[in-house]
Amino acid sequence: MEKIQMTTPLVEMDGDEMTRVLWGWIKDKLILPFVDLKTEYYDLGLLHRNETEDQVTVDAANATRRLGVAVKCATITPNRQRMEEYPQLTQMWKSPNGTIRAILDGTVFRTPICIDAIKPVVKNWKKPITIARHAYGDVYRAVDLETEEPGTATLTFTGDSGQTQTVTVQRVEGPAIWQAAHNKADSIRSFARACFQYAIDTQQDLWFSTKDTIAKVYDGAFKRIFEEEYEETYKSQFEALGLTYFYTLIDDAVARVIRSEGGYIWACKNYDGDVMSDMVSTAFGSLAMMTSVLVAPDGTTEFEAAHGTVTRHYYRYLKGETTSTNPMATIFAWSGALKKRGRLDGLTDLTAFGEALEQACFDTLNAGIMTKDLVSLVEPGFTATAVSSEAFLDAVAQRLAQKLA
Hints:
Layout: E1 10-14, H1 17-31, E2 39-43, H2 46-51, H3 55-67, E3 69-72, H4 80-85, H5 96-104, E4 107-112, E5 130-134, E6 143-147, E7 151-158, E8 164-172, E9 176-180, H6 185-202, E10 205-210, H7 218-241, E11 245-249, H8 250-259, E12 264-268, H9 270-284, E13 290-295, E14 301-305, H10 311-318, H11 328-345, H12 348-366, E15 369-370, H13 372-375, E16 385-386, H14 389-404
Parallel strand pairs: 1-2, 1-3, 3-14, 5-12, 10-11, 10-12, 15-16
Antiparallel strand pairs: 4-5, 4-13, 6-9, 7-8, 13-14
Helix pairs in contact: 1-10, 1-14, 3-5, 6-7, 11-12, 12-14
């Protein structure tokens, strides 16, 4: 069979631990036999980030801006435990996702991958809920400070004009911790526009939630900018399509989401979206059954798996044990990137390949061939067999070859 051709490379960002292993298997079994794959490769594994003092992450993000489409493996963001685990590390490097998102800006859209055999634990959910997560700022770009003595903390802004604004944060009588977070008005506005446009493109209602009753200035700016964008640009399109834009407080939104039937976009600030996307994906089935795509204001797109590096399985793999790690989110990162590249370059065969790859995954799952995490979730009466990661990928590859024959 003649391989499907590409004209423009993808940016390929390799990652860590078990997901790095899956990454190689997915390429070898599901992509390279069928596609003349062209990528610009960046190793975002933790030790290589350390060797390059994290320059490789910046280079990968800039390459994504240049080429327009990227696919990223899950990566480690080191904490103190990881510093002990990897003594070669010179510092606790920042989240590579945070670095990439800061450079690209934009919004992360995460949607559950649903199959009939697995029903959401929230029994009234009938349709997927897409989380739209702002991808810049807040705690991910915050600075932290720990102090030991009594004193007063202030927050000061010095303008280029020389004018300053200062507020007192708090007076303390002993040890304390401090954090200063920020966001940018143009990034919030890009976030709002991306959410409204995505709602129009997918014809779904849009919900947005913050806590502006507490963070009156900070969250209040998010609420105000969303309202401005809606009223000035998107309201007429929403009304013509019969769509609704709805704002509420984050705690009220959680209650409404649980009572809803799903089928809408829920826009959240950066940290809220991080937490709520895990909640939604788990309630629909599994963290490994969630697509994740970063859309920048200029249309630059990065596809990734929304979950971590599956450390526990990795150490079992290193011992020679067979693991049953779910590769679905990583497969869909690849299929999403290939479909996007195909659309941008006018390569219908490449786009069709991405769609066929996803359907081969669904066919495999619907045949009851699953990784261990999903077998315990299937509905009574549905027969499912737990297989290893490699066996699952082999089953997908067999069905994909049949579709492409």
